[in-house]
Write a structure and sequence with these properties.
Layout (H helix, E strand, L loop, with lengths): L1 H59 L3
Keywords: Membrane, Transmembrane, Transmembrane helix
Length: about 60
């Protein structure tokens, strides 16, 4: 009986440890992905805006 209780406690501690470690791994990766996505979207929008301006200048400079 005591062995069984110890086994259950051991399993529970392993489960909580894996849960904690997965959260510890998951949260920073989620933050990194969010920042990367945000940066890429900003950079992409900036590039798109630049190319649009460039095309506009090319078109407006035509005689």
């Amino acid at each position: 009986m005591l062995n069984r209780a110890g086994n259950v406690a051991f399993r529970a501690s392993i489960a909580t440890q894996t849960k904690k470690s997965s959260n510890r791994v998951f949260i920073p990766s989620a933050i990194i992905l969010t920042i990367t996505g945000f940066g890429v979207s900003l950079f992409g929008l900036h590039r798109l805006d630049d190319s649009r301006k460039h095309a506009f200048y090319l078109n407006s400079n035509k005689p």
